[in-house]
Design goal:
Blueprint lengths: L2 H24 L6 H9 L2 H18 L6 H30 L10 H8 L20 H15 L8 H19 L13 H13 L8 H16 L5 H18 L1 H4 L3 H8 L1 H22 L3 H46 L1
Helix pairs in contact: 1-2, 1-3, 1-12, 1-13, 3-8, 3-10, 4-6, 4-13, 4-14, 8-10, 9-10, 13-14
């Protein structure tokens, strides 16, 4: 994996952390320009995530004929264990901390649907959010994985077009007509296609190694994001996010020796899942003991970072390797028995 992409993944995760800090501690009422930026624009970290996800999935599967079931199984064992764990912890926190978290409600139906990546109305009454609120993005990720797994049935040159057609059918036909959940009627799903296009550019050598031009492009993209509302998402935030990803790839020669950036990128998924739990715990401490929110946040940041690193090492990487090794061993045994 490109160190530059890993670094950007880490920055995107921490932008979302700051966004949710403003939400949980200040109810999105910022007191300064930095707070305003993260309140209004911190969610763009999700857009960057989606572009990177399309890029990574494309680069990891290009020129490979992978059975759809194997692709999905690999994605499931990579994504699901950590998500299920933190969804369970969030459910327990909501139960234990009531009524201190009046807007957080959990019931068995929404909890099970959350685990199955099925969009449903949150019992707290604030929309189509799972028990672990940030999991809404994973519902889109799983849709992308399911559709991507199906394109392996077709020639490689046709796969992006077929995937685009499938996303269009679900988002702009089925979603907007009400035949599937309105959750999917969101043009944010097309950002996965932007990531695939970036992957095509990278594979064909269209992204050259530079310094000043990428930095200017990043500045222009951030300026655009800061001055535009998120809708239409694919245009106003998706395209600038793709520009940022391309620019960061151009900066790879200047970043490839910074192993810490790779580690931060490795931990970004756990940062994303874990941070709301830590922030809610910090908010409870702040409310009960009157501690300054920024002081609490200063404590939350290293807790999130350390917890995410442990989560990556023990759950994401460790459990994934054990499960994948066991599955590969079973597959090899079956193939040997049939030969």
């Amino acid at each position: 994996m490109l160190i530059s992409v890993q670094a950007l993944r880490a920055l995107a995760a921490w932008a979302v952390v700051c966004h949710h800090f403003m939400q949980i501690f200040f109810d999105f009422h910022p007191s300064g320009p930095v707070g305003r930026f993260f309140t209004e624009k911190g969610a763009v970290g999700v857009d960057v995530f989606f572009v990177i996800s399309g890029l990574v999935i494309y680069l990891s599967t290009v020129d490979k004929d992978i059975p759809a079931g194997r692709f999905m199984l690999n994605r499931v064992i990579r994504i699901v264990p950590a998500y299920w764990l933190y969804t369970l912890v969030m459910g327990l926190l909501v139960v234990v901390a009531q009524p201190l978290l009046p807007h957080q409600v959990v019931d068995w139906q929404s909890f099970v649907l959350s685990l199955l990546f099925i969009p449903s109305e949150n019992p707290g009454g604030y929309g189509l959010y799972p028990t672990l609120n940030v999991g809404w993005t994973l519902n889109y990720e799983m849709l992308f994985y399911v559709l991507f797994s199906m394109v392996f049935l077709f020639q490689q040159r046709l796969r992006p077009l077929i995937l685009a057609a499938a996303l269009f059918a679900i988002t702009d036909v089925l979603g907007r007509s009400g035949l599937v959940s309105r959750f999917y009627a969101n043009d944010i799903v097309y950002e996965f296609l932007l990531g695939i296009f970036v992957g095509v550019m990278y594979r064909r050598g269209w992204i050259s190694e530079r310094l000043w031009l990428p930095l200017i492009a990043i500045g222009a993209a951030l300026f655009t994001i800061d001055h535009l509302q998120p809708a239409p998402r694919i245009i106003n935030w998706g395209l600038p996010s793709a520009v940022i990803v391309v620019a960061c790839i151009s900066l790879e020669p200047y970043l490839r020796n910074y192993r810490l950036l790779k580690t931060m990128g490795d931990c970004s998924y756990s940062v994303y899942l874990l941070h709301v739990l830590v922030l809610y715990a910090g908010w409870l401490v702040s409310e009960r003991y009157g501690v300054n929110p920024y002081l609490v946040f200063a404590v939350c940041v290293p807790v999130i970072a350390l917890g995410a690193w442990l989560s990556y090492e023990w759950i994401e990487k460790g459990l994934y390797r054990r499960m994948k090794g066991w599955l590969d061993q079973r597959r090899a045994s079956k193939e040997a028995a049939l030969s």
